[in-house]
Amino acid sequence: MVDLASMLFGDFQDSIVATFGDTIGWVVGHALIVGLVALVWYTWIGREHIRTQSGWGMPEIRDAATIIAVTMAQYIVYTSNLDYPDGPALAVAFSATMFARWCVNVLN
Question: Are 71 and 101 found together in one domain?
Answer without folding.
Answer: yes
